[in-house]
Amino acid sequence: MADIDFAYEVAADSAGFPMAVSIFADDDDVRDAMREDVSAAGFTLREARGLSALGDGGPQALGELVLLDCPVPDAAALAGLMRMDTRVARSGARMIVATSAAGLEDVFGACVESRPQILVDPLRAERVIAIGRMLAEQPKLRLRELSETDRLALLRLTEQVGKIAERLDGLDRNGWGQDNGAGPESRSAFRFESPVDGYNARQAEPLRRSKTPLPSARLVRKIIAARKARARFVDPNLFADPAWDMLLDLTAARVEHQRVSVTSLCIASGVPPTTALRWIGQMVDAGLFERVDDELDRRRAFIRLTDKAADAMARYFAEVGQDAVAFA
């Protein structure tokens, strides 16, 4: 692809003032990289501090965008994150939170009000792409008008950067593609494992009945197994369909009287966790998924089908009948 130069104006609000960003990260290198990236995006830096500053709640105003790096949050960091979540929601700002696979459940549970974009073990390129998405979604931002050709080129470029970043990350973590003897699943850059022995991402919950009965869990699990089997024969990226895979998983869980954690649902999606989290957000917006906070532990949350989605899935399976495996 030929070199493309997208000349943006400085990101500004409706009055023409540069948009501001607040950064919170303990790692000096990460904090410095964030500074460079937000500067390149046209923001002005309002503050760049460690995670201990999350709980300050002082008079200093937040930026319109908050970038937060919280890979393995401890109790103090989670308490600060919960306060920041409320501040961001009340101020109308947007927030991007980077964490690790081990910290995902805690971070997701702590962010109730602001609905941030959560990145899991992100590469720097993924952070930049996330900032770009915020630029596109923030109505206050004022960017130079792009032609339709530029818009399409930018979209393709963004997708390519993300895929290249993922591949490079996988090569770097696994000796540039050499077999480490642990099998193909262990070489995935985004492979999730249970945090501890006996970890149970699913817990029993009451089942709401659909107007049309849902299919048996056995049938849905058979469909899920058949979809996973394709990966043994063809490149799974050719058939990535995270929304449908998550719908199937939550349908089976509903029939089985189980609750599904966000980590478990990310695994079921078959795509990198950061991508899965964006899909979960879109499905919530569409009224198909809903977040359910754990009544015993407010730091933990689950995802389940809405009644609307359950009824739709029940009608779908009633339509296709016993041929559901072939259609899915």
Automatic annotation (TrEMBL):
Signal peptide: none annotated. Residues 271-309 form the HTH marR-type domain. Pfam families: HTH_27. One of its GO terms (molecular function) is DNA-binding transcription factor activity. This is HTH marR-type domain-containing protein.
